[in-house]
Write the structure tokens for this entry.
Amino acid sequence: MARPFHLNTPLLESVSMTKCVGTPVFLKMENSQPSGSFKIRGIGHLCQQLATQSKGVVCSSGGNAGMAAAYVARKMRVPATIVVPSSTPQLVVQRLQDQGATVKITGKVWDDANTEALRLAETEGLTYVPPFDHPLLWQGHSSLISEVAASLEVKPGAVLLSVGGGGLLCGVVQGLKDVGWTDVPVIAMETVGADCFNAAVKAGRLVTLDDITSEAKCLGAKTVCRKAFEYSQSSQLTIISELVTDQQALSAVETFLDEERVLVEMACGAALAAVYSGLVHRLQDEGRLPALLGPLLVIVCGGSSVDMEQLNHLKHKLHT
Amino acid sequence: MARPFHLNTPLLESVSMTKCVGTPVFLKMENSQPSGSFKIRGIGHLCQQLATQSKGVVCSSGGNAGMAAAYVARKMRVPATIVVPSSTPQLVVQRLQDQGATVKITGKVWDDANTEALRLAETEGLTYVPPFDHPLLWQGHSSLISEVAASLEVKPGAVLLSVGGGGLLCGVVQGLKDVGWTDVPVIAMETVGADCFNAAVKAGRLVTLDDITSEAKCLGAKTVCRKAFEYSQSSQLTIISELVTDQQALSAVETFLGQYEERVLVEMACGAALAAVYSGLVHRLQDEGRLPALLGPLLVIVCGGSSVDMEQLNHLKHKLHT
């Protein structure tokens, strides 16, 4: 099998988070993946399976999925076309171009860009790279858990992660199944205003949000993928869906930068906020999370759609 | 052989730095080691060799060597005593205690703390952990290069790193020897005011600085280790010693943090190496004929370091007027 594009990322114990939670906390540092986030796991795997003899790949994400697709395509020496809406900042367009991708600007919102990406896949024989809803993506993401199983040597007490479209959640659940850890609870975090998973769990059915009103744009899927919803309904799994505010997510980003010296996106901050804001304790007090018999595994999903200027802009906008 | 304490850290291509240099640039991300810097390689190795049956370890660094020693000792389930001078910030003392170490505050400057550490090693039978001057440290650090050799698949055109006491330099040179890459030039960076290696190279002999006047405190050895100086004099190796100012090192830290690709906060000591890229030093060395055109990627060792946070960064910006 060809060498994967992702790395076995550092699993680091966080002394400061351990103090917060009262149980050892381990961070899986997906921010240090090539292209900046965990997405290279699934997208690398999907492209290796589908795009080796391809005329090229096409993706409709200007965010982390697009960056991962552009990177993987460059490494595979196939062309990459990233289709983005006109609202996409020039900085994002430039970054994708720096990765060697052709950027096509189409329409006003993501849906327009995605329609065009699917059209190009059809008419030009390109391999379409979905951002989160595909079994090959989940299979690729699942490698995260097998790496942890090899490094950690004990079963985690719980896994903490952020949910956007649900791709990471599905990959983690598959990984937990693969290593026999299905009894490990998963705390699935979103921000208020980018909470398609939480809305579906509350409604008991898939829900499409009218709009994304959170600043955590990279969590901004309007509908969570069906597989993630199915997992939330399964009696074999314990998936706890929780929300934090934008302010809490941003505050978590700032604290994490100070304590761990890594700058992550607000989407990632949603998961970190569960530790810093005391949510883990609250869930235990409410009896929704058992006392942790093993370490808390926090997936630091990463994300490169952030820099110091953006952080300061968000601080100003959210008045923190 | 027991499992090592260090990790095989990410080797990441930096498109932004590649644009600066004109050759592919790869970053070995030692900031993501447990305890925050490359030092765990050498200190982990030394402790595994010397301290397994020990009554404990003792170290006189409140910086990254101390953090690495405290972490390794905790993992080995042996006590750690870190001796630091009274000038050590409380934040540093707290972090060491959080790693489970006993912190002893002695004297005013590092030399006092080190004298006490050596005394405790003698009287209490503790294993003394030197910060940079020991063959076991260099042997441990050399694993960095063997990891790169396995990942990179091509020989680097040059290696870029920071020099404090010379431990990393010695480890890297040993690693280059181990993998047959002794013809790869090493660009060894320091800051003005923490330049013991450069001073020795210029004088043609070991030099002891009167004082460390740079803000890059973690580069602050007054005398570089003898082995590093010997390497600089060897005709078999190409080691280019260069300096940047504190302002350039700090600016490099900010740039590295601010760019979308890396998003990591490192110490100024680490910034000294990064500044060689951002300030155009690599090009200048080539223009001057001191560095050949790079026939392979530039390997930058991001040494890391945990003695920094946003407050410290802002304090330094204010102090250095950037």
